Amino acid sequence: MRVSVFGLGYVGCVSAACLASMGHEVIGVDVNQVKVDLVNDGKAPVVEERIGGLIAEVVRTGALRATGDVREAIMDSEVSLVCVGTPSEPNGSLCTTYLERVTEQIGVALAEGAEQGGRHTVVFRSTMLPGTCLNLLVPILEKNVGGTAGVDIGVAVNPEFLREGTSVRDFFDPPKTVIGELDPASGDAVTALYDGLPGEVFRVPVPTAEAIKYADNAFHGLKIGFANELGAVCQALGVDSHQVMDVFLADRKLNISPAYLRPGFAFGGSCLPKDLRSLVHAARRADVSVPILAHVLPSNSDHLQRAVELVERTGKRRVGLFGLSFKPGTDDLRESPLVELAERLFGKGYDLKIHDANVSLSRLLGANREYIETRLPHLAQLLADSVDEVLEHAEVCLVGTRDPAVLSALPHGDGPVIVDLIRLPDAEARRAEPGYMGLAW
């Protein structure tokens, strides 16, 4: 394919060189004439493993050249990759100035009839927040082109997952390829660019593609911060943190796995809250600052509060809660987030009915009974014997269980407002219903 790459920094330079080495005809574009001249001389404008030799080779064969002329680049390509920077503003917000400027320039060039033969596809590879493409860049493009995105011009978002220092290697062996497509034809154009590369390809809506890059980078930062904080605590306690992490990393069932990585309701139970408190307390006694670990429980509490706020937003007072135990299939109520939710709602004066098929006050024993008598002493008057009893009572139903008897009884359309705490199996269909509110979308 004939490809133009806007921005010859790390991402653009590596993308241009690697695509050229795959057989595409690539023209790089940059406002910095020094970068343009370096590329045309077969030299890399960035320092990166393997990039120098790769650029020298593809320039020598004529597969890659560079220019500062936007019109020339558009005229000589059918797909444009936008790889300009999106730095932080002083207040932490995203700077989209360069994205807007390049999008406008591409639109003007397309309007002038520069593009030859077929629909041009503009692919945004720059990191940008969800909504940036559809709400900001697409209107700029359509205004300047005088056409409709997805019809007259293709638009896609294609985030990169290149690590500086190994970016060439990462390009040819990607962890995944993500294509946010405005329409199938736009997605097809991007898919063709990477034909032959390994890894799974995900074709998703544009905002999803924008968000995935942030999910990745936020988690990477969280992992590094977690490892460093744990290392500091271990050192203070005289423990070899690398031995600890070697064993931690060997667990591919719970630790390095998809476990616990699905948005849902708050966590609780007899282990996680207690052990986090204990670890943070030990760190404080050792004068070790652990802001990430120290804020896990407050973050969990804030997430629980979001469920309360969803109920408040309805303006209704009669509430039903399905599920009470910490984990489905048990009657363990110790530090259950659903008990905490019930306590907050009851304390705010809501008329509450609760049903959990595994919870019977007469069967609760020991620490389990002591806990519920302390946190929710009025449980006996709140418990309902059946699903129907809760549904008949409630104007708002909070669903915190996947009990088949509950799921099959939940009404569609007319009926109580459904506040989904777990992402119901039919959540996608219910999202179109006015009486559905999801915490785990």
Question: What is the gist of this entry?
Answer:
This protein has 19 helices and 13 strands.
Widest sheet: strand ordering? 3-2-1-4-5-6-7-8
- Our measurement of the CA-to-CA distance between the termini, rounded to an integer number of angstroms, reads 38 Å
Which whole number gives the mean pLDDT? 92
Shape: globular
What is the helical fraction, as a range of percent? 40-55%
- Determine the structural class based on helices, strands and strand pairing: alpha/beta
**Residue ranges: pLDDT <50 for 5 or more in a row?**
none
Radius of gyration: 27 Å
* Count of extended strands: 13
Largest sheet: 8 strands, mixed
Task: Give a description of the structure.
The chain has 441 residues and is of the alpha/beta class. The protein contains 19 helices and 13 strands. It has helices spanning 10-21, 33-40, 51-60, 70-75, 97-111, 132-145, 167-172, 184-193, 206-236, 241-250, 272-285, 291-294, 296-314, 337-347, 366-375, 379-382, 387-393, 404-409, 427-430; strands at residues 2-6, 25-29, 64-67, 79-82, 121-124, 154-157, 177-181, 201-204, 318-322, 351-355, 396-399, 417-420, 436-438. β9 (318-322), α14 and β10 form a beta-alpha-beta unit. The model has no long low-confidence stretch (mean pLDDT 92).
Q: What is this structure's SSE topology?
A:
Blueprint: E1 2-6, H1 10-21, E2 25-29, H2 33-40, H3 51-60, E3 64-67, H4 70-75, E4 79-82, H5 97-111, E5 121-124, H6 132-145, E6 154-157, H7 167-172, E7 177-181, H8 184-193, E8 201-204, H9 206-236, H10 241-250, H11 272-285, H12 291-294, H13 296-314, E9 318-322, H14 337-347, E10 351-355, H15 366-375, H16 379-382, H17 387-393, E11 396-399, H18 404-409, E12 417-420, H19 427-430, E13 436-438
Parallel strand pairs: 1-2, 1-4, 2-3, 4-5, 5-6, 7-8, 9-10, 9-11, 11-12, 12-13
Antiparallel strand pairs: 6-7
